[in-house]
Amino acid sequence: MGRATCIVPTLFLCLKPSYNLAAPRERPASSHVKMKKIFGLFLFVLLSHGKAIAGDFSFGITSQGANFWTAITQAPVFLIDNILGAGASGFTYEWISIEDSQGKIKVDKGNYFGFKAKDIFNNFGYGLTFGYQPKFSPLGIFVNGGYKFRQFRMQPDRGLEGMEKYKLNSWSAGATLRVTPLIGMYMDEGWSPIAEIGTNYNQVFKCKAPYERDKDQFGKGFSTRLALGVRICYDDYDDRGMSISLSYEIPHYDYFNRDFVAADGSMPYADIKSKNHSVSLRLQLEF
Fold first, then answer.
1. For burial by CB atoms within 10 Å, which of 46, 58, 126, 233 has the most?
2. pLDDT of residue 5
3. Sign of dihedral through CA atoms 176, 185, 84, 55?
């Protein structure tokens, strides 16, 4: 595999430090600044791994689906990632917990085993991921961004006879820190358990929904992703590997904007508490 020309890489850029960590300073730094420098140095030391090689990096197209026949929506990604020899795919089960002062509100998200277009394409997404983790380093950093389409039906007003239809287009971006705690086991046995913690920022940018299709009726904000899994090296010669993880994403904002004011002056979601939850099984190839 090809090798980079620099000697010690930082998180994503191959830069040779030009400063002297031991140089005296005229004024003592604050404790906050000191902590940031210690944390930065900690990451620098653990992620540094001699010369950067291709096996340190992973890049590819990601995909996700929430239907039994989800392989249909992910087929193009499987093909591209097979050509690249990298990428990630997975199955995601999502649900929205919605309730008002009278109790839970029913949400119809389609037939999980349905083979109709409205079922197969009711919740899927694509994105890009880029990661850096030297083969024998206990830490890895991954950044990601993506698009997701989702549709469902619900009854925002109990006075309505039927259910309103929602079609949402959203984007997300975030980063994940991966820890391989038993790096000695990975070196000797070719596999090790892993733990991941990350964050994503999520926002709806286009929708077909009640209330003048106003995207401001939906919440936006950060979510935390927690995952456990296993990291496997299946080809020592080419430094090829893969990871399999099971994750849960915890939202820190309401799915519907409770402060939203419709054109008629009403606040349809003021009494509604809503959270979007997701559990994902993810397979990532690393080259």
1. 58
2. 35
3. positive
